Every structure is written in structure tokens, then in C-alpha cells.
Amino acid sequence: MAESKKMLANYVPVYVMLPLGIISTENVLLDKESLKQQLLKLKTAGIDGVMSDVWWGIVESKGPKQYDWSAYRSLVELIKECGMKMQAIMSFHQCGGNVGDEVTIPIPQWVLDIGEENPDIFYTDREGNRNKEYLTLGVDHLPLFHGRTAVQVYGDYMKSFKETMADLIGEVIIDIEVGLGAAGELRYPSYPQSLGWVFPGIGEFQCYDKYLKAAFKEAATKAGHPEWELPDNAGTYNDTPDSTEFFASNGTYLTDKGKFFLTWYSNNLITRGDDILDEANKAFLGCKVKLAAKVSGMHWWYNSPSHAAELTAGYYNLYDRDGYRPIARMLSRHDAILNFTCLEMRDSEQDAAAKSAPQELVQQVLSGAWREHIEVAGENALSRYDSYAYNQILLNARPNGITNKGVPKMHGFTYLRSSDDLFEDTNFELFKIFVKKMHADQEYCSDPAKYGKELKPLKRSKPKIPIEDLLDATTPMKPLPWDEETDMKVDG
After folding, report:
1. Active site residue 349
2. Residue 379 a catalytic site member
3. Can you give the CATH number for the domain in which 81 is found?
4. What are phi and psi of 373, to 5 degrees?
5. Pfam families attached here (predicted)?
6. Which of 389, 387, 154, 330 is CA-nearest to residue 378?
7. Residue 282 is part of which domain span?
């Protein structure tokens, strides 16, 4: 019996993301019977459930507080009928313009209309290009949306979702991932394909709307440097670090002015995550559900001294400064899961010119989260169907090997994504082996309590952490050791 419990403790749940366009922009659940067959096929692989975006641009499209959850209600009921669990994403961003976006779902038209009159509600780069993927955090607390602030709009949406799905939350819907930025990730939209970015460009800072300009000027003046301005030497989307004054060796990022800006830029991002998760806690208070937030895997230029791609996205991460531990510390206030991407990637697969290091990045982020005593979850960044990717995910899911030794493992893994390619015979057979290995070679377990994932009613967030404590990131963190070899391989 003791051995059985030990084995169950090693069970890592596996979910699969559903296609992006299963609900149309007209708010219709498309081809329900075909989707049902897809869900039943996935169930034969032994997965624990599925993940789906719940698009703000669809549900509140008709006007402020005019919510229509009917299509999503049908989706959740179908998932229940198929005997599966669901991770629901509160998707406050636009679908379209990012890697892997196959459909276009704008944010609500009534919000875009406000943006026609006041384009500064959108993130803006130094050249003045507006990005309509997500509202700038500069308007988080400004009542520009028919008397509501952006944070209030997000909070009202989540409360309405809770009220409509109350009988299904905890029974079917077990995780609520809260979208906090572009692509649903806690980051600035620093590398939009819609504005011409291509890998491995460093991206651009996104703080040149009038609200963030004013906020920076106020912060600089308060710090005794009213002459400081936002960066004008950080290059453009597809530059390399060394081609800019800001990110080059001995560049601006190392000066007092550069450090002040980067601290301000990254602190704003963490504070906005904290504020919106406060609203999520209020909305789902007492529900048996876990909150989660996604952090992007910015692995390119990780081995460059300036970590330029991470800095433009808002992750102030350097060799002597951990940019992810403060995010984990913020999430700990809300007992929220840190969901991280690019778990399938290996350094050896990357272009050497990009100075990419996904393996080291994953180790750093997950280690920092575990040290803050929060749960971590993971995703693959790109669609993969090969044993090399699955083996790397297995290694990251249990960094100390198959026995786990009572130390860190993942809360769950979500595979990107359900598709015809996944269901191809060879690919699907390999995927089923992968799921079995993630379950520690056990059969599917229907009781979350048995694999350490017992759902408890959500409590209020812990008291506010003083900002100086929350954002302290001056001590570099040594990652936890990852075993080089494991006995978890799926390729025989």
C-alpha cells in the first residue's frame, strides 16, 4: 500500500490544448459532433483533461457587461459528457499576430472603438506603432471603459464566468489560468509578428503610450532625475544586442539610468499581475479551483550578457539578477501556479547565433518557483511529435528522476495542441506512451486527490507584500540540479 501511494505521488497530470477556433467569432460552438469525437480520441490516450481559451473578444463582444456564455457553456458540458476535466483560460488578449495563431479573434469591438478615439490605450513602441493585442497596463486603473478601469473590466468578466459556470467549477473546471498580457502571458508584447518581428530579433520596449510615458516621468522625477527619458537607443525588433547602444557590452542597461528604467519597466508588469490576480481571487473566492498564470519562455539571447529579448518583454533577468523569482513571489500571494513554456526545447536544437539556452532558462524559472513554495506547470512552446521533445518534457517534469524522491515535480503539463497531425497513427501512439510515462506508468487516475492535486476552496490572497520585498531580485539563483539521464524515455 505504501508503494502504491508513493507511485501515485509521481503522477503528473497531462492536458491537451483544444484548437483555437472551436468557438467562432459569432459565438457558436462549431461542429460539436466532430469535437466530441476528438475529445473521445484524446481520452483513449489517458489524458486528464483539456485546456481552452475563453475569449473576451467573443463573450463580451456586444457591449460593456453584455456577456454571452452560451457557446462556452455548451463546450464545458460536452467536456463533462466525455468524462474529462478542463483548464479554462481567461483570454483578455487578441488571437492573431503571434506564433501559432491560426485564427483571428480581436478584443471586443466596443473596446477597439474606444481605441479609435484614444489609441494610447494600446501598447506602443518608440516609433508610435500601436499593438491592439492587449490593453496597455498604463490604463489598468483608469476609468476609460464606460466608467470602468481595465482591471475592473477583467474582474467583472471573471465574476460573470463564475456565476454562469458555478455548477461546473470544481467538478469539470479545475484550473483558471488568468491572461495577463500578449498571448495570455505575463509580458509586454515585445515581439509581435504583426509588426514584422522574426526570430531571433531582440524585440522592442512597449512603454511609449502617453500613460506610461507620464508614469515614467513621474517616477524619474520622484527619484531625483527629472531629466531621464525612456530609452531611444535600444534598437528595433529584429536587431541583435550588439547592434544597439542599450544592450551592447558596457551598454546603457548597465548604467544607473538603464537600471532605473528596467526596474520600473519590470516592476510595472509584476504589479499588474498582482492586481488582476487580486480580482481573480475575489471572483472565484470559495470555489474549488486553482489559479494559474503563464510566463513566456524567452530563451533567445539568454546566453548574451544583456538578455535583451527577456528585458524588452519585461523580465529583468541578468547573470547577477534573477528576473523570475519576484514573479514567483507575487504568485505565492495568490497560491497561484506558475505555468512556463518551452519545456520541450533543447539547447542543441537551437541556432547558435541566437545564443539560446532553453534548458538553463527552464531550470532557472522552475527552481525559483519551487523555492517560493508554489506549484509549477508547463507547456511546450511549439508543436512537436517526436521522442526527443517528449523526453525533454519528462526530464523537466521530474528533475530528480522517475522516483521523484519526494522533491519538486510539476503540478501538470499541457500539450500544445490537438490537431490532425497529433492524431496521425504514429504520432498518436508515441503521444500515448508519453502520457503513460508522465503518469509514472500508471493507468489514468480519475481522483485528483490521489496524485497530490486535491482541490480546496480558493481563499483570499495573502496580505500585500511590500513592493520592495516582492521585487527584490538582486541575488542570482543557482538552479536545482537536473539529472542528465533518466529512465523515462519514450523511444524504447
Report:
1. no
2. yes
3. 3.20.20.80
4. 65, 35
5. Glyco_hydro_14
6. 389
7. 2-470
